[in-house]
Write a structure and sequence with these properties.
Elements: E1 3-10, H1 16-26, H2 32-44, H3 60-65, E2 72-77, E3 82-87, H4 95-102, E4 107-113, H5 120-131, E5 136-142, H6 151-165, E6 172-177, H7 201-207, E7 220-227, E8 239-243, E9 249-250, E10 254-258, E11 263-271, E12 274-276, E13 278-279, E14 284-289, E15 300-302, E16 309-320, E17 331-336, E18 339-353, E19 358-360, E20 371-384, E21 395-399, E22 406-412
Parallel strand pairs: 1-3, 1-4, 4-5, 5-6
Antiparallel strand pairs: 2-3, 7-8, 7-15, 8-14, 9-13, 10-11, 10-15, 11-12, 11-14, 16-20, 16-22, 17-18, 17-21, 18-19, 18-20, 21-22
Length: 413
């Protein structure tokens, strides 16, 4: 079955965890022992009915405060599709966690409290979703039961969000009025909102077309590992293992290896003990070439008529995730696809005000959760595409040399 990854985002108490709990509960994706544990926890907290948010708020601190701090991953399936959910925090200080949860998502659910309308965090999370090139945005106007399911409230929020979304680079935006607490339009159609003519949230998630979300035009194969098994059965076997990051590779294709520039032909494509005729994103396969070439981890296999940009100077939109501010001149480890290099921060060109999307120049450093355009210089050339062209070959992470902690994530411009 096809897999859909989606993330939830919104302001604090907009009902993200409750919505996910409702999706799992109404989709019959909760084990009986889990449900019993949630019932007992709900009784201890004095709730009259089951608190579905407890299904995802797994940390003790989250249950005590009633908020989401970490990114909680949940898995469920329907007859049509498998799902991986990333429940991300709503607080401003946990924006970096939202970036982490959304980085691999096909779709983002933006929750808006019907009482409060579009807020600063709505702008922030929508901009980050756009920055991360999440192809599909589902805007859920939640807590419609509290505003008596009034169509006017929903339409006003939809108009306000649409005005802001016109500045974002998101191609597919859909709107759903829901009540996560009562279950309206989550899995089952709501009788309380006959004026709404669209599908339920689950219907939308099951039917979003994600096949074209990957780049199938630009062949990119970062080499992760060279396979040389010691076995009589696989005598003289040499294969290059990795995950297809873009395009389609077929048996018999002529390829080019970067950075060496060697040219060869694909002799076979292996998947376990099966031989394939072609490989495409996001398949993990092993390529065998007709020629014995010096290829190692960090090299990239491409087509000779379609080569990524090769450069040591890159500009990225960087989300800073560390308590210690980023300052020009600082050195970090940079990870890009299967390559690890050292780099230096040349310049912070400007910051972005996520509420207005305006460029801001307000200092020489970048503080935690701030987003800016940053110029980097690497110790050796990278093979990359822009992030809006390929999310795999257009993304980088920065790692602190002393602590080995990930301190920043960047999208190459």
């Amino acid at each position: 079955m096809e897999l859909l990854r989606f993330t939830t985002a919104g302001s604090v108490d907009d009902g993200k965890s409750t919505l996910i709990g409702r999706l799992l509960y109404d989709s019959k994706s909760i084990f009986e022992d889990q449900l019993e544990a949630v019932k007992r926890a709900s009784i201890r907290k004095g709730n009259e009915q089951i608190n579905l948010a407890l299904l995802t708020d797994g940390l003790r601190a989250e249950r005590e405060q009633g908020i989401t701090i970490d990114v909680a991953y949940r898995y469920f399936a329907t007859p049509k599709r498998k799902f991986i959910i990333a429940d991300t925090p709503g607080h401003v200080q946990y924006t970096r966690n939202m970036v982490t949860g959304a980085s691999t998502a096909n779709a983002a659910i933006i929750l808006i409290d019907a009482r409060n309308g579009v807020t600063e965090q709505t702008y922030r999370h929508s901009y980050i979703s756009s920055l991360l090139q999440i192809p599909h945005l589902i805007v859920c106007v939640n807590k419609m039961d509290i505003v008596n399911y009034e169509e006017k409230v929903y339409e006003e929020i939809r108009e306000n969000f649409s005005a802001f979304a016109s500045k974002l680079s998101v191609k597919d935006i859909r709107y759903v009025p829901i009540s996560a607490l009562k279950g309206d339009n989550v899995v089952v159609y709501s009788e309380n909102m006959p004026w709404y003519g669209g599908g339920t949230l689950r219907y939308i998630l099951e039917n979003i077309h994600v096949g074209s979300d990957w780049n199938h035009l630009d062949p990119r194969f970062p080499v992760q590992y060279v396979i040389r098994p010691i076995s009589d059965k696989y005598h003289d076997y040499r294969g290059y293992a990795g995950r297809v990051a873009g395009g389609v590779f077929r048996k018999g294709d002529k390829i080019l290896v970067l950075p060496s520039g060697f040219i060869s032909t694909i002799e076979a494509i292996d998947l376990f003990e099966q031989e394939l005729e072609e490989a495409y994103p996001p398949m993990s396969v092993t390529l065998r070439l007709k020629d014995d070439l010096d290829i190692s981890r960090g090299d990239m296999i491409v087509k000779e008529n379609n080569i990524p940009k090769v450069d040591q100077d890159i500009d990225v939109m960087l989300c800073w995730m560390n308590n210690k501010p980023l300052t020009p001149g600082t050195k970090y480890y940079l990870k890009h696809t299967t390559t690890d290099v050292r780099c230096m921060v040349k310049e912070i060109k400007y910051k972005v005000d996520v509420n207005t999307l305006n460029q801001v120049d307000d200092g020489a450093d970048l503080k935690m959760n701030e987003i800016a355009r940053v110029a980097l210089r690497t110790t050796k050339p990278l093979f990359f595409d822009s992030y809006n062209q390929n999310r795999q070959t257009g993304s980088i992470i920065l790692i602190d040399e002393g602590t080995n902690n990930t301190v920043g994530v960047g999208m190459i411009i």
